[in-house]
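pls design
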């Protein structure tokens, strides 16, 4: 199955163990858990294969639970920097200083563009606050019509 394939490919069990130790050392706090969330994509997954023969994975969330505290979600830049040290790819950051447009129509127009993964149409964009806490997804209407219409 593709989940096991990605877990082996990116040595996820070891990476999570290393991240537990990393965060415990950096924060000098007991770590209860580390959660890595992402998406597996490629051949045979949904209707868009991203020009990939086989499968791959990109992380989109890294969450750490410190003992006695609310879980902390790393912001996209922190996540990318940390996970790059362990060879785990992350979703691309398109614009670090993006300002939301005034209308949903303008937002959907921005979401309808080329994917940074393979240069073809992208599904849309996920917008995340600088602190990594709030997020939403704008899905391209063209993508929806082509793959789900």
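designed seq:
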């Amino acid at each position: 199955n593709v989940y096991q394939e990605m877990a082996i490919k990116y040595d996820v069990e070891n990476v999570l163990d290393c991240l537990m130790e990393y965060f415990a050392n950096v924060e000098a706090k007991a770590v209860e858990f580390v959660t890595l969330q992402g998406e597996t994509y490629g051949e045979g997954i949904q209707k868009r294969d991203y020009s990939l023969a086989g499968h791959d994975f990109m992380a989109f969330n890294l969450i750490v639970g410190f003992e006695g505290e609310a879980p902390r979600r790393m912001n996209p830049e922190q996540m990318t920097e940390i996970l790059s040290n362990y060879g785990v790819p992350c979703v691309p950051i398109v614009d670090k200083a993006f300002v939301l447009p005034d209308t949903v129509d303008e937002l959907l127009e921005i979401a309808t563009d080329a994917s940074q993964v393979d240069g073809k149409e992208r599904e849309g964009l996920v917008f995340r606050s600088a602190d990594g806490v709030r997020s939403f997804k704008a899905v391209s209407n063209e993508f929806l019509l082509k793959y789900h219409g």
